[in-house]
Amino acid sequence: MRKQTVVSGILGGFILFAWSFLAHLPPIGTAGERTVSPSQGDDVLNAMRRSMTKRSIYILPGMDVASKDQSAWLAKFEAGPAAVVAYNPHPAEQALGGAPFATWMLIELVSDILAALIGAVVASCLSPRLGYWPRVLLLASIGLLAVIDIDVSYWNWWAFPTTYLLAQCVDHVGGWFAAGLLLAKSPS
Questions:
Q1: Is 56 helix (H, G, I), strand (E, B) or coil?
Q2: Secondary structure of residue 88 in the 3-state scheme
Q3: 3-state class (DSSP) for residue 31
Q4: Which end of the chain is more exposed for a tag (fewer CB within 10 A), N or C?
Q5: What are 53-63's pLDDT values in tens digits?
């Protein structure tokens, strides 16, 4: 891999990180989110502590996967409510040096740099005859691909709100468009 591709990938990662930071600010970053009222929050968290012991994705109503007859579960699911809960009983324990927010930001930055390095490799394989703007749009389509592959599935299967889906589109397509403005300049 050429030095310029690596440098472009690292810079592109910082662009993705910065764009994602901005896209996670309200109103886009909070699209589709709701909070439990503070007066009920402790009750909900205490119920979760009793039922959920590990960092995991919990699906409610629960399903007995060993059972051959899932009709009772299906009836309960269709009657509602249903939930998908990403649960972490001890968030600070996964942090480097006990600093969860700093750890999460560092992991996000590293993952954005790795993704942009892949984007830089893709950009370096594109024909220069394609032209700058088509290259930018092709790189932006990486974000669209992620939304279609991941976020549409969450919207479809787990009932993520449509506003959340649209916000993810702004985040991912916008981020890859912004990074693509740099990466598309990479010579082949």
A1: strand
A2: coil
A3: coil
A4: N
A5: 999 999 999 98
